[in-house]
Fold:
Amino acid sequence: MIVMRVAIFCVFIFIFSSCRKESNKLGDSGNVCTATLVGVKGTYGKQTLVRIDTNTGKGINSSFSLVTTEHIHGTAYNTKENAYYILERNSSDNKQLRRYDLFTHKTTIITYTGTNEEVRSSNRHIIFYNTFTNKLCMTFFDGNGDCLHELVINGITFDVKEILPSRKGNDLFPRTVDDNTGDIYFSSYDNYQKQNIEVYKQATGSRMLITEITGPSTISELNFNKNDNTLYGVRGTATNKGCEVVTIDVNNGNITPIISMTFDTLIASIFSTLDQCNNVLVVYNAHMVRTVNNDIFWVDLKERKVRKHLKPGDYYRDLTFVK
Structure:
């Protein structure tokens, strides 16, 4: 009887421990694949990191204490640190990173101390996280065109290291990373005459052209899904009141539409983010006008259908899935 009770107790402890590991609370340091949608709510003056209610699309109260009044240039989520980074221009007209630890809720300011004046002065920054290299990356205009750098963080200061030089009149916009290889997919514009879908190959340090796009149907968002090794794009429709999700064959450049969505209002700015835990792409039509209902679509990439269409009425920027 004593042996049986000990066995039952051990089984109970094992089950309880397993349940604790399966926690999907934001900030859980476990390795379970869970996803919580967050975004920066508000416009210039006061912007707050909020959870997004997946039933209504509205920002909900949470334990986040990340608030900024600075001019935001971009955001990125570091999966290994479980930290959210905001690139800002501070009151001294310099660049800084606001690092928010999603587990401890501690904020750290990391200031740019490098000598590249274009980093300080440019207003065309984008930052993102490369899971494969465990590096934050940045694109910015260097006076010639957009270039790609890795961020070198040392305590509360950071500098940049160039990995892809600029081309004259060449702008880099949407970007995404293949978590399996570290390859960075992006689109570039040559003096706005055509759009190129390209890839920066991590293994060789070179850039390769995948396809060229001319005309109005340009790609405004890119997301690489490591689950099916597919590059997805989002582009506006001819009526400017909708968009479609497409696949882009990285070997031959073929673009294939897979699903279309219609907005109630004209397109303002299209954003998207990928939930790789559930193979869901969230597409967001953002309006600066508060009285306009924004559209948020949940697109099931496996079944290739829209799961839900929400109109939260709130303005967000940089929606991101975090664990």
Remarks:
- The first strand starts at residue 36 and ends at 41.
